[in-house]
Amino acid sequence: MNKIILIVCAILALCTPSQRETTQVSNLKTFAKVYGYVKYFHPSEEASAIDWKRFSAYGASEIIKCKNQAEVIEKLNVLFKPIAPSIVFSDRKSNFNKNTLIPPNKEAYTTTYWQHKGLATGMYYRKGNPYKSVRVNALMKTTEVGQTTITKGESLFDASPEIGASIEEEIGDNIYCQIPLRLYLNDEGTYPKSNTFDSLQNKLNKVDTKALGIATRLGNIVNVYNVFQHFHPYLKEAKVDWDKEFETALKRSFSDNTYADHLITLEKFTATLKDGHTRVTNFAKGTYQPPINWQWIENKLVISNVFDDALDLTVGDIITKINDVPVDEYFKEIKSTIAAGTEGWANHCAQMKSIVGKRYTEFTIEVNSKTIRLKRNGRYGYGKTKIPIQENLYTKLAHNIYYVNITKAPMDTITKILPKLEKADGIICDLRGYPRDNDGFISHLLKENDTSDSWMRIPKIIYPNQKNRIGFDNRNWSLEAKKPYLGDKKIVFITNGRAISYAESYMGFIRGYNLATIVGQPTAGTNGNALSFGLLGGYSISWTGMKVVKHDGSQLYAIGILPDIYVAKTIEGVKAGEDEFLNKAIEVILEKN
User: Fold this and answer.
1) CA end-to-end span of the chain, whole Å?
2) Measured between alpha carbons, how far is 164 from 187 in angstroms, rounded to an integer?
3) Average pLDDT over residues 516-521
């Protein structure tokens, strides 16, 4: 009998932590929903004044203590009533009492509500950023470089939630919330007012914003979930079960211990969105590398540059293991932390990320059955394979063909050589990378003025979960055709997976107006102005805030601009020092003669 009791106790001991974690994760998911709804869509004065990063950690630490439904409801009231006094939580569905929102002398009030054009709330300020978030009619603090101003929130667009409109939703197992989207407002603030705000604020002031305990980790995950749940414009195109990924990230957070652990959890979480602009950064990262570069070619990891003659390595050598791990397995783990919509961008980022680290750290590689130890002792292009032709801004090749390096040549340089380009038989434009603010060159390829007017689209949002979207604020470049006209020349653009964002806007014109033959590989499949936000513990995350499509309206995200002629590198070509992309471009021009 005693033996049976011991076995049962052992089983219960094993089950209890798992059951506790399951309950905690469920409670955190409930808390997270309310967190996002109140932060971005409930327009109370108190919600606009709270430190949401501190609140995410404090709220997470409190909600995981709850053992049952009744405790969760009680805790939600304790947490959110101070910042949303009109909020209602209950264990049953009921009609929201709109009368609680009406002040005694409502004629003396106006109303306020949130409007988002993209997202600015909680984002770092960046000059020229097209995104805005406004609590209409409310006084709002705006911080720009070197100054802080207080302005009255002016409407961004016509649509608004009606008075009495609210979020009414089951946020957990038989846990319901009712959250107003529009409130009455006067000079003293929104109605009704909170009488417990100061008490909550005092508790938040005690939150350690630098420590990386479980509360900070969970709070950060809650914060990240809500930014992308409500505002990432490609959530549908990413084809991701975001709620499931959120749950996975929460579970990982319980076992994370170090800054590096948390960094990986944040990276894996956001990588599922395939947003090539997404970077998770903190002070733990390094940017040093050994005196080599490597690249995936013909499904093998190949040495592509050697910067130290003393190394027993040669360009073209094939690496089979890194730190005794087969390279396929090593890179599979690396890629799971990289947000990328196309294989080209994923490989480019993985090649860099896998080789860089903190200064003087070491690792081993296996090449030709030999183990070689490498030290990260310098900066040799951050893992980017050097392309010899790209050392030129421009150059004249054989057969009266001009090469223009779009990744390096500024517009004034291109303008100076326009007379030479006008006399050329063919022009090769190299966009294997990022343009040098020289999109004015496109104007010389256009026969008529640009008429594409809605390929950049900033979402207009007043409701959560990207439902009932109001539409988009459409943007374009409106390029004018300019002389000299070069579009009658034989034009080839070279591109690859390193071409992202602005480069894809550039290539969008080339493809949309059929201005050249495109040679190479698909671009990165990520476009739209990037923005970023900070988290507790010194982390920050960048992401894409607007939707960009191809000029015909079709999807760009996670597809990229596709080449007319696909080019794959070969190991033999790398060994011979050949630029196979450039060779194909020259061949295409000569074939057309």
Assistant:
1) 94
2) 21
3) 98
Angle, helices 214-231/259-271, rounded to nearest 10 degrees: 20
Instruction: Quote the strand ranges of 370-511, DSSP E.
Output: 370-375, 394-397, 401-405, 426-431, 456-461, 471-475, 490-495
Q: How far apart are CA 472 and CA 474, in angstroms?
A: 6
Least confident of 255-259, 282-286, 509-513: 282-286
**For 281-382, where are the alpha helices, taking DSSP H only?**
327-335, 343-353
CA 286-526-453 angle, 5° bins: 140
Q: Is 478 left (phi over 0), alpha (psi -120 to 50) or beta?
A: left
The CA distances from residue 74 to 63, 68, 280, in Å, are: 10, 10, 35
pLDDT of residue 1: 46
Residue 527 to residue 270: CA distance in whole angstroms:
17
In total, the chain counts a number of residues equal to 593
Give the helix/strand (H/E) hosting 70: helix 69-80
Question: Positive or negative CA dihedral for 102, 104, 107, 110?
Answer: negative
Q: What is the pLDDT of residues 73-84, one digit of tens each?
A: 999 999 999 999
Q: What is the pLDDT of residues 138-184, one digit of tens each?
A: 987 766 655 667 788 899 999 999 988 999 999 999 999 999 999 99
Residues 6+ apart with CB under 8 A from 238: 232, 272, 273, 274, 275, 557, 558
List pLDDT tens digits, range 204-233. 999 988 888 999 999 999 999 999 999 999
Q: Which of 393, 392, 396 is nearest to 423 (CA)?
A: 396
Query: Whole-number mean pLDDT of the chain?
Result: 93
